[in-house]
Amino acid sequence: MRSMFNSFETMIGLRYVRARRRNHFISFISLTSMLGVGLGVMALITVLSVMNGFEKELKERILGMASHATVMADGDVLDDWQPIAKEIMHHPDIVGVAPYFHAEGMLVHNKRVNGTIIRGILPAEEPKVSTVTDSMIQGNINDLKAGEFNIVLGKELSRTLGLIIGDKVTLIAPQANVTPAGILPRLKRFTLVGIFEVGMHEFDSALALIHMDDALRLFRKTGPSGIRLKTNNILKAPVISREIVAQLPGHYWVVDWTQQHANFFRALKTEKTVMFVILLLIVAVAAFNIISTLVMMVSDKQADIAVLRTLGASPGSILKIFMIQGTLIGFVGVAIGVIGGVWLASNIETIVPAIESLLGRKFLSADVYYISDLPSDMHWNDVITISIVAFVLCLLATIYPALRAAKTQPAEALRYE
Questions:
Q1: Model confidence pLDDT, tens digit, residues 52-95
Q2: Which of the residues 60, 104, 109, 200 has the least number of beta carbons within 10 Å of its own beta carbon?
């Protein structure tokens, strides 16, 4: 007798998914449950891919002007930096080094005043560690020449001060000069020779670039503040930078990009996690639909269950029948969601512009947002995680209705048939 029931659970479970005479409505609910699971999975994959895209874009823009890591001496300045730079370049994972000088000051033009971060650079070395050359929208970074006191500003900063190429701007250093007339702030007039735009407000609105020699003369320092590094793997920059410092002779300390912008990237990670949990509720709602579908199916199939039990089917076999039905609904829904989500995430950069063109409006206006397009960076590990979590939710949703069906007593079920 047992051999007759080896595969009948699967056959009946699959058959119950399809519409048969009385249960068209139940099958309709099964279909909506599948689509609900698919929609939730598709939304999760698409949204997380877009958030990954934004994170990648922001990292590239931040690290376009910042550095993967910075090596500094114990003192204020790094004297004789060239031998240290050569030693650092011996590391196989370093692709570029450049000295820099960091200070703060105020820029004054006409009656407009704005605080700024001063970065002294060597124009020939800076492109090795940043994308400032590619970010220039006016002028050229090579126009920063020693002794000429030229300056390059971010787009927002130049707009705030009302500057155009060729204008003079006064830089006020925090150090003071002691004169017979008293203590006076140190001032120097610079000529604007370039404007850059990297797409990050932090840099476009506050950063000013001047030649290293001009910066050292103005702030009366003997050497740069440190050396900026660029690695061949941004994710390994913390490890690589610490290996370098450990190998350098003398006492140095290092700060990598994960420390400089820790709060920002931690906030992005938290936002991504919260979004995952919120969108997972869509899948949970669809799983509840699976519960209602199976409960209605159990009620509709009471007589069939009683007949199967009378023919020798065990409660475990009845349990399998309805778990197979619910599992199939969940599996098909997850498959639909994965296919739709992967397709949408892979083509969203072309789909969104097409929708914008059709509607005649821009979702992310370039006048308001620094990132005006929806970038997408799909990670297969995210797709796998979403699929597994969604499928497990659907599997858990089948347990209660299947247990209820397994507890059906044949005599009670057939009493009114």
A1: 888 888 777 777 778 888 988 877 778 788 888 888 998 889 99
A2: 104
In angstroms, the CA 49 to CA 348 distance is 10
> Cα separation of 226 and 79, whole Å?
9
Q: What is the pLDDT of residues 342-358, one digit of tens each?
A: 999 888 888 888 887 88
Strands 252-256 and 207-211: unpaired
Q: Which two tokens stand for residue 232?
A: 């061949």
For residues 153 and 204, give the distance between their C-alpha atoms in angstroms, rounded to a whole number.
8
DSSP H or E segment with residue 95: strand 94-109
Q: What is the DSSP string of 244-307?
A: HHHHSSS-EEEEEHHHHTHHHHHHHHHHHHHHHHHHHHHHHHHHHHHHHHHHHHHHHTHHHHHH
Residue 35: CB atoms within 10 Å: 16
**252 phi, psi to nearest 5 deg:** -135, 160
Q: How many CB atoms lie within 10 A of CB 341?
A: 27
Separation between Cα atoms, residue 280 and residue 273, nearest integer Å: 11
| CA–CA dist 206, 119 (Å, integer) | 11
